[in-house]
């Protein structure tokens, strides 16, 4: 595979990663915001630290999503 093909692979992988994140994280965040009201991200983090189960689950899913994305996309970008 030449460089142009790897660059396209990186772009497609990034877009897939982004849309999977939207599909899994956004509905959970909207559900949480409907329950607690229109608050900022700092308030959601505070809720998670105080033990709110929905906020903790949202924070955990977000961190897993970011870490997996970094582990896959950074090496792919380096080699493209």
Describe the structure.
By secondary structure, the protein is mostly helical. Helices cover about 90% and strands about 0% of the residues. It is built from three helices and no strands. The chain has helices at about 5-35, 40-50, 55-80. Helix 1 runs antiparallel to helix 3 and helix 2 (about 40-50) crosses helix 3. The longest helix is centred in the N-terminal third of the chain and has 34 residues, at about 5-35. The radius of gyration is 16 Å and the shape is elongated.
- Helix and strand string, N-terminal first? HHH
Mean pLDDT: 87
Query: What is the number of helices?
Result: 3
Gyration radius, rounded: 16 Å
Helix content range of the residues, please? over 70%
Shape: elongated
**C-alpha end-to-end distance:** 10 Å
| Percentage of β-strand residues | under 5%
Number of strands: 0
The class by helix and strand makeup works out as mainly alpha
**Low-pLDDT segments:** none
Q: How would you sum up the major sheet? A: none
């Amino acid at each position: 595979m030449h460089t142009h093909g790897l660059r396209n692979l990186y772009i497609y992988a990034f877009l897939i990663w982004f849309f999977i994140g939207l599909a899994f994280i956004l509905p959970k965040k909207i559900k949480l915001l409907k329950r607690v009201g229109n608050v900022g991200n700092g308030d959601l983090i505070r809720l998670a630290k105080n033990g709110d189960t929905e906020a903790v689950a949202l924070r955990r899913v977000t961190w897993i999503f970011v870490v997996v994305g970094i582990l896959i996309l950074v090496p792919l970008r380096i080699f493209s």
